[in-house]
Structure formats: C-alpha cells, structure tokens
Amino acid sequence: MSYRVLMIAPTSFFLDYGCHVRILEETRILQKLGHRVKIVTYPLGRNLPDLDIERTMPIPWRSSKEVGPSRSKILIDVLLALKALEVTIRFKPQVIHAHLHEGALIGGVLSRLLRVPLVFDFQGSLTSEMIDHRFIKPHGLLSQLAQKVEWHIDRMPKVILASSTNAERVLTNEFHVPADRIIVLSDCVDADKFMPVLQGESDRVHKLRAQLKIPSEQKIVVYIGLLDEYRGIGVLLDAASRLLARRTDVHLVIVGFPNIERYKERAHGLGIADRVSFPGRVPHEDMPLWLALGDVAVEPKVSATEAAGKVLEYMAMGLPVVAFDVPIMREYLGEHGIYAPLGDARAFADQIAVLLDDPARARAIGGALRERAIARFSWEHAGREIERVYDQVAR
Asked: Cys-Cys link to 117, which of 252, 320, 340, 393 (CB 3.0-4.6 A)?
C-alpha cells in the first residue's frame, strides 16, 4: 500500500550536505514508489521543486549559523513542534519519519498524542555531535544530561533506521537499545547521477579547471563536505602542506562551507594558499562535475560516530579514496579503501602520494569502488526496505 508520510527535518533543509542528502534521496525514492511525503523543516534552506516542504515561521534573532547546535535552535524546535502538530492534524499521516534526535523527540510526542507510528532515522549520537561541535564538554554534567535525554529519545520510536552498522553498535552498546528495534539502512548513492565523466562532458570539466586556474599538468585532490575541525579539515591542510612541500604537480580543491575564511587563512599560514582552492558552497546537483575534477578523493573526518555519505559519491564517480581508518570507512570502502591511522597527517599525505604516483592502480581501485557502490548502496533497495519498515509499524 502507499503511505502518507510526515518527514520531520529539524535542520535548514536543503543545504547540499550530509544528512540533507539522505533526507532528499529518501523522499525522492519514496515518492517514486508511490508514497506521499510532506517535509516539515526550519525556515532557512533551499526549496526544491519536486518536494512538498512546509516551514516554520522565522524568528528575527535566529542565529545565522546553519550547521551544528546553537542556543537559538531551542526556540526554533518549539516552533517546529507546533508546525508539525498543525500539519499532522491537517495531513493525517500514517507514518511519522523523523530525522535527527530533535525530530525524533517531536515525532515521539506527536506519535503518542495522535497514535501515529514513529520511525527514527538515526545518523549518529546527539551527545557526540554536540561534543564534536564544541557545544558541550566531554565528561561534564551537560554531556551526562545529554546522554540521558538521548537514551530516552532512542526509546520513543517503534523502529530505528541506523545509517550504518557502526551507528547500530552505538545504539546497542552505548544506549542499550534492543537490537530487534534497529534496522541498518546504509546511506546510498544514485550511481546514474554520480558516474565517471562521459566523453561529451569532458569540456565542462576542462572549463571548470580553467576557471579555478589549475594548470593542466597538475593532479587534483578533491574534498566535498562541511569545513570544520571535527570534519578533519585542519588535519587535511596539514597533510596537504607535507604533500605539496615535496611535489609541484598537485592541487587541492576543497568544496564546502562554513568557515571558509578561517581555512583560507590557515592555508595561507602554511604557505600553500596558491595551490588550494576553496570554491565555497556548491549545489548538490553540480557535485558530479566538481568531483570529476579529481584524481583522488579524500575523507579526513575524525568523528567516530557520524556517517559520511559523500564517500559513496566518491565511489560512484570511480575515484580512489584516502580516509582515516575508522569503522564507517571500512564499511563503505572495504578492502578497496586507502587508509591512514586516525589523525596522522603525515601518513594521510603519504597515502595520497602513493595513489598519485600509480595512476593505473588508482583507476583500478576507483573502478572497483564504483562496482561496490552499485552493488551494495542502491537507493532502489533502500526504498523497498523503508516500505517494509512502514508496513511493520503500521501493523
């Protein structure tokens, strides 16, 4: 059967990164399968023509901060809860599908009030995220309180969709959620959109390279995502300074936001500013073109709990990937990943150099990663799995 689904997204949807991409692709595959999805979200964000989005009213003193926790989010979440209640009464959803812990809390209250089953899309620990963003200190009273709140939220839904087996382990080991209430629904990728450059599209890539003023003989290392310390951007620049100090044939393209000026200054201080490009925020639909610039892709994330769906986009593009050796990267890349010890900038630079020095091996690895992405991380399969979960909770 088809379902009316209320999707609660406590974020400035759509902002072309991370959890936003998961929300977008889940919604699109559900619509393709015949379900009606209504997204309730914050006032900021980019509207997309094929999505049914309803937003809360804006508040005049809302922080301009678009990523991570902030005090103003408390009020905006209250407004989101009221908006979600109003939409629920009018829309009469058969399933509430909540993203992030704030969404699960709002959805949990609505679920109990209106007897609509709740599914929680879990993409990482709330407590760990606040620590990663330096919003609270580890091992302090606030982190203990956050863990208790998170523990209770995790018990509100009928089913939790964990974005990785690592996320499943966090739920079972740290928050003691019963395993039979968790279903692993890995991040996926549309391999028809993210694919190696076709012959007819190579001119666009050359024009983009020229626009960035990157000489044709230089090889390109590419990153897409948020720019912050817990995302490993500082470590990436340290690795870049080591790599660029010993070779002249490499240029880095670091696509994303926020904190662009901070990292430009960091690159300047390291003496590599002329060989690192920061193009800023790029629409998600243009990401394949930007990734097509790359000879090697990198994922320097040092967070131990968050997923990293961008890596699947690297894989689908046929790019070899250098990443730190953490469980989620092993889950994505398997035996075809090129790994460095966590936080080791020197080793990270060395692994990039190994791939740049052996283009044939790099291409072979990239081809194997694309095959892996197609075989194991398809949105078509994920959509059917979500349907089965809806059938389960609706019963």
From this structure: 393
| Nearest to 229, CA basis, from 65, 68, 350 | 68
pLDDT of residue 136: 67
Amino acid identity, residue 208?
L
Contact between 96 and 119 (Cβ < 8 Å): yes
Q: Closest Cα to residue 270, out of 370, 158, 349?
A: 349
232-256: b (≥16 Cβ within 10 Å) or e: bbbbbbbbbbbbbeeeeebbbbbbb
3-state secondary structure the chain: CCCEEEEEECCCCCCCCHHHHHHHHHHHHHHHCCCEEEEEECCCCCCCCCCEEEECCCCCCCCCCCCCCCCHHHHHHHHHHHHHHHHHHHHCCCEEEEEHHHHHHHHHHHHHHHCCCEEEEECCCHHHHHHHCCCCCCCCHHHHHHHHHHHHHCCCCCEEEECCHHHHHHHHHHCCCCHHHEEECCCCECCCCCCCCCHHHHHHHHHHHHHCCCCCCCEEEEEECCCCHHHCHHHHHHHHHHHHHHCCCEEEEEECCCCHHHHHHHHHHCCCHHHEEEEECCCHHHHHHHHCCCCEEEECCCCCCCCCCHHHHHHHCCCCEEEECCHHHHHHHHHHCEEECCCCHHHHHHHHHHHHCCHHHHHHHHHHHHHHHHHHCEHHHHHHHHHHHHHHHHC
- Position 180 scores a pLDDT of 95
Distance in Å from the first CA to the final CA of the chain: 12
Taken in order 118, 124, 129, 131, the sign of the CA dihedral is: positive
The closest of 190, 128, 145 to 328, measured between CA atoms, is 128
What the block records as the tokens of 47 is: 């509207």
Cis peptide before 258 (omega within 30 of 0): yes
Q: Are 77 and 353 contacting, i.e. CB atoms less than 8 angstroms apart?
A: no
Report the C-alpha gap between 330 and 236 in whole angstroms.
19
Contact in structure between 310 and 188 (CB atoms under 8 Å): no
pTM, two decimals, is 0.88
